[in-house]
Amino acid sequence: MKSKKDNARNVETLRYGWKFKLGDSPEMAEPDYDDSGWETVRVPHDWAITGPFDRENDIQILYYIQNGQKKEIVHTGNTGGLPHVGKAWYRLRFSLPGNISSKRIRVEFDGVMSHGRVYCNGKYAGCRPYGYSSFSIDITDSVRPGENLLAVSVDNKPFSSRWYPGAGIYRNVRLVTMSPLHVAHWGTYITTTSFNKDRAEVCMETSVENHADKKLTVRLETTIFDPKGKPVASAEDTKSVLGNIAFRQKLSVKSPLLWSVDSPELYIARSTVKVGDKIVDTCETSFGIRSLRFDPEKGFFLNGKNMKLNGVCMHHDLGPLGSAINTSAMKRQLAILKDMGCNSIRTSHNPPAPELLELADKMGFLVIDEAFDEWRIKKCDNGYHMLFDRWAEKDLRDMIRRDRNHPCVIMWSIGNEILEQKDAENGAKTAKFLHDICKREDPTRPTTAGFNYPEEAMKNGLAQTVDIPGWNYKPHMYARYHSQMPGKPMYGSETASCLSSRGEYYFPVDDERIFDNTSLQVSSYDLSGPGWAGSPDSEFRGVEENPFIMGEFAWTGFDYLGEPYPYQGQWPSRSSYFGIVDLCGIPKDRFYLYRSRWTDKETLHLLPHWTWPGREGQVVPVHCYTSWNTVELFVNGVSQGIRSKNPKNLLNRYRLAWSGVVYKPGEIKAVAYEKGKAVKEITVRTAGKPALIKLLPDIKQMKADGEEMAFILVSLEDGKNNLCPRADNLVRFRIQGPAEIAAVDNGNPVSTEPFRADYRKAFNGRCMVYLRSIKGKKGEVKVTAESQGLKTGKLTLAVK
């Protein structure tokens, strides 16, 4: 258990020692139930991610009428083809000290997927059906000194999600021991109402609970610490408390350091509760000082500066790790996106893990915090519509109370593509119900929603109800919607939906809309997309030509498990093709197109690879994603012509394309020019046969905390530093020392190899191995990667 102690409050992360079993029986909640034969797991835990993959795990039969006859369509892989449906139990024995009768005890769950029911020492304590909601349960009346039992039942229903949801206690759990007088759960609310370069006014509302049976005179002392840990402001207030009461304080911070995406400065507010001179509770809240402005004509402003939202949508799974949260893996995802120029995340389509917002605060990302994918009208048979009437207000309220102190959060999204867009009678009413909850809990941020039926949503008033409408896949309609909704800021809430498989290229090169490749892959020329969307270039143009559009959120930053469009009916397709980065974190070509558009970094990237045996003398078009305006292409030293970006030609507006290049083994080279001078070049060579394995870790040292991970890129090369772009050799891994393999993957959306294994086939020359440290064990970790006929790859990491 990981502990954080102060004078009166003890917080323990309940990570180790859990017992787990698939199945269901009411006796499993009882303290004397024999769980000795159960599996021992660590939490966060996703029971389904280890597989095995099987088309029967999420097979769906859909019916439609054609020529008066009923036809059927079989869909599978929609939730990843993983065994997440079913019931299961978790049990944990924990000890409490002898003075527990003078304390309040609660258990905090960051998320249980799903329909979690909590028991303490055999007594029912509470439940939460929505798997994405964080919640707490007071177990004071059920615990005793010495050993106690916490039991959690989980029920993942079939047809409840449109993507892979995960299964089990997949986010962190904490045991909190407090004085009967304490700051309430999510009991602080901080706003920075006004500031200038000399001073910022910080308003703080603190809710204090008194569970004693008498009125107490309570003093609340609040101290603000700057990003370096120096106290810079303080306030105190005294009140008589019986039950619950809110303290409201104003503090003044001199020469405030502003939070921004480029300089994410964070302050800490420490709340200390005293009775007389005795400290009875202390808690800390992180916050930032910043201003938001949403202008209907000029777009988005952060701290008075106009900026574009260069955003991506992100589902909650961590690829081969599944939905079980890991801070190292999430931090790695955000670092990759940051390098691409991404500055914003839309949490699609549900409340995120708290760790995402904590990292966004620290790393400088803006966040649209989204609550629901479904209201009362169903998308899935067992979707959120089954919960809406009873739980929507509490789920939305709790999300906002949990997240409203994060400076990264800029909007509350009350829904994504909700079908009430077409509900003339109730669409606007339901939106108003949710909008009003947001305003009661946090009037400082606007509400939003993602609309894919804008005309209907405007007609029934739903789009007018939210403060800022978001348009899904409508770049060609931005000007029209702007004229139809004057005075409303707006943005692309879901854009592009470009499809690709990393390292796959098909000829001839065109804008694919019909996908019939027997490989179940999609070309990485980044021109392909579903009927409702298009290439990244089209969205770039839509944002550029309509300056009132605040920016875009591309679908998606990373590939995710489930929704294997366009092959959702063809097994073994089991994960998405939409990502700019593949499932295991290897950037696709498209990454560099966004990087060239969203950053000032020098970018020069060529595609495809130049290893095409059997295509000698045939056309292999070459595209270049670059931050430079002008590039010349060479094949084996022979110029193929100079291309310059042309705003009148969409294919060459944001990328450069040579459509008639004839393949000859050797090399292709791109030379970038600035003011007529060559300033940068890149060469891609024809690779020979695979000869060796190269290992490249993202870090060289791990903490011995049992949580930190190292992500090792495995590349198959020909011995001349050339990646073998079609190699699919099986690679086996051996680990010596204080680490374990947490996952393996290769980004192939049709692979059914297990994620938890010591082997993986390369996909287009590459795969990944995720290593996790072992708690409390230090030393050297030796990694060996072997494949028949190839020189072994070796690597040493330190664990300290």
Can you offer a commentary on this structure?
- The longest helix is centred in the middle third of the chain and has 16 residues, at 388-403.
- The strands form 11 sheets. The protein has an 8-stranded parallel barrel with strand order 24-25-26-27-28-29-30-31, surrounded by 4 helices. A 6-stranded antiparallel beta sheet has the order 4-3-7-12-9-10, with no helix packed on it.
- It has 5 domains: 2-48 and 84-178, Sandwich (Jelly Rolls); 181-287, Immunoglobulin-like, CATH 2.60.40; 309-497 and 534-577, TIM Barrel; 604-685, Immunoglobulin-like, CATH 2.60.40.10; 692-799, Immunoglobulin-like, CATH 2.60.40.
- A hairpin with a 3-residue loop joins strand 21 and strand 22.
- It is globular and about 90 Å long.
- The two termini are 19 Å apart.
- Mean pLDDT is 96; it is low at 1-6.
- Helix 1 (327-340) crosses helix 2 and helix 3 packs parallel to helix 4.
- It has 800 residues and is mainly beta.
- It has 9 helices and 47 strands.
